[in-house]
């Protein structure tokens, strides 16, 4: 996360059009269950409006909040995800336990873009705005001495319009960039895997055709044992194709009620 210190709440708000001006940014809103706490600040860092289940909040409340606020529910709880989908709320079951795995899942299944956007507060989810030199100077004069005096570079600063938190590209920034790169590499690997699967599925249909023909030929020759073996091969090929198609579906964007 960007470095942050507490301060007084600010009052200037940036507009939605500002948010949407981040190029190619597909706006999605999320609600997370309590088991996915680490995803919260990352999704906010990536610019997504993300809220988190309150302590002791019931599954039913999560569902209602997702429905009323148009949020996608992310949960480790398969049963909850299925209930939400049955009742028309978009929900994705997260299976990974580690944060990079979890982010990979939302990137592949929902198209989450893993680059820091600096439009949303990682702490409170409100919008943040870039501070200009005068605003920065004003904050310093007000005694916000945690803001580095005369930064060595033209580093940028942001302030949350909700909680007033000030952010800048601090020591954690390198880790953020590394995670972004890792996620992008993972996305490319998944993309290649998708292409391989598509290729194999297409290919296996051709093979299946040949196996069936061979099976018929063996039958015509009266070679029942050969025919039986080839029949097994046809069945196995059909099964394999089915599994490949299932794997491909899971690698694509989620949109159905299937988990
Ligand atoms: Zn905030
Ligand atoms: Zn082949």
Automatic annotation (TrEMBL):
It comes from the Archaea. Residues 28-178 form the Mut7-C RNAse domain. Residues 193-251 form the DUF8180 domain. InterPro entries: DUF8180, Mut7-C_RNAse_dom. This is Mut7-C RNAse domain-containing protein.
